[in-house]
Design goal:
14 strands; three-stranded antiparallel beta sheet; binds pyridoxal-5'-phosphate; seven-stranded mixed beta sheet; single chain
């Protein structure tokens, strides 16, 4: 009965059958008129999903980490100063990539479960001139949602280029790339974008493309160099065949389907649905006495819940919840790895998923010998989903 398991991890997520059907269709030639049309549609739709009409999109075979490395590798030159707004494990990864590309990295840190705020960032960028500032939109290890609009506002007059890692956020958490002035927004296919793993996606502002053109030294990667990919993407968007490295034609066809579904829902409706489901989850956790890793609701992601294991319950809880039919994830952040667990709620997440997941957590806790009142979490979820205040 594996196919009846509900996959609720922070990526890969459960995929829509229409998206999966595109993967199993016969492969097209990457220079066929049909595929060129599909790739062009994907690029145009990606701009709409990121609310970035002015951006240059890139769709490359690889995972989210490649998207991070492409952003860094094309914008940073050895000796450049970079500031990492650090909210967890993936901010640390961004710092490692920056260092590998020769940047001098400074961290702006907050305590675990919190995010640096706009005032702190404003102060940091007034103390030194940074070439790039990186922000993790949602850090998947802590469930912290960075106040990204305010952080980008704090950067505006500094001249620094911003790179926002949206891998656990894009198409789930509100983001208006052009209006908020983000230079690079990047993600991967397998999280809120709703396509199996294998695609790195970026939207790059004209200002960042200009900074790349003005580099003094060549990009220190061949496969990840914008110079190789820009002509290909421009050709595909203009309806012309082109080749640099073979695109994953089936994944791109699946992305076309998923982006169409996302835009049919509408970005503001989609952001609102994720917020509503996130709120319902948080009500369920509170009713079960579970503590979120994010220290306050304003920095709590709507795309996943990172929770502390309650006292006396160990990480075997994850396996007990799986036995109840819902697949969740263990901890990731090294400081709380063995003391936390995570539930993804992005892409197609709906009311049934919230009830199923919270119900499975209740049963898993009971099976772990932890006293909860059966139905307490579900009942709190239902009050949110039906707009019924607690009595
Ligand atoms: C998952 C994730 C990544 C890494 O993506 P991969 O596809 O696993 O390489 C990077 N940043 C964030 C915020 C993520 O959630």
């Amino acid at each position: 009965m594996n196919e009846r398991e509900l996959l609720m991890i922070p990526g890969p997520v459960a995929f829509d059958p229409e998206v999966l059907r595109a993967l199993s269709a016969p492969a097209r030639s990457h220079v066929s008129p049909e595929f060129i049309q599909t790739f062009g549609n994907v690029l145009r739709q990606l701009r709409e999903v990121c609310l970035a009409p002015s951006a240059q999109p890139f769709v490359i075979s690889g995972s989210g980490t490649l998207a991070m490395e492409m952003a860094v590798g094309n914008l940073v030159e050895p000796g450049d100063h970079a500031l990492v707004v650090n909210t967890g494990y993936f901010s640390d990864r961004m710092a490692l990539i920056l260092e590998r590309h020769g940047a001098e990295v400074t961290h702006l840190r907050a305590s675990l479960g919190e995010s640096p705020d706009a005032d702190q960032l404003k102060r940091a960028v007034s103390e030194r001139r940074y070439k790039v500032v990186t922000i993790t939109h949602v850090d998947t290890s802590t469930g912290v949602l960075a106040p990204v609009e305010a952080l980008l506002g704090a950067l505006r007059s500094s001249g620094a280029l911003s790179i926002v890692d949206g891998v656990c956020a894009t198409a789930g958490e509100a983001f208006h790339q052009d209006a908020w002035g983000a230079d690079v927004y990047l993600t991967a296919s397998q999280k809120a974008v709703g396509v199996p793993p294998g695609l790195a996606l970026l939207t790059v502002s004209p200002r960042a493309m200009e900074a790349w053109r003005r580099r003094k030294s060549p990009v220190r990667a061949f496969y990840a160099d914008f110079a190789e990919w820009l002509p290909i993407h421009e050709a595909y968007e203009a309806g012309k065949p082109s080749y640099f490295a073979t695109p994953p034609v089936n994944l791109i066809a699946a992305l076309d389907v998923s982006l169409r579904q996302i835009l049919a829902e509408g970005m503001s409706q989609r952001f609102a649905r994720h917020r509503r489901m996130g709120t319902a989850f948080r009500a369920g956790w509170a009713a079960l006495g579970l503590e979120l890793v994010p220290r306050s609701a304003v920095v709590a992601a709507n795309t996943l819940s990172a929770l502390y294991l309650p006292g006396g319950v160990d990480a075997a809880l994850v396996g007990r919840i799986r036995a109840e039919g819902v697949v969740i994830a263990g901890g990731l952040h090294p400081e709380i790895k063995g003391r936390s667990f995570r539930i993804g709620h992005m892409n197609a997440v709906n009311a049934s998923d919230v009830l199923a997941a919270v119900g499975a957590v209740e049963r898993g806790l009971l099976a772990s010998g932890h006293p909860v009142s059966p139905g307490a979490g579900i009942s709190a979820v239902q009050r949110v989903l039906t707009d019924t205040p607690a009595r």
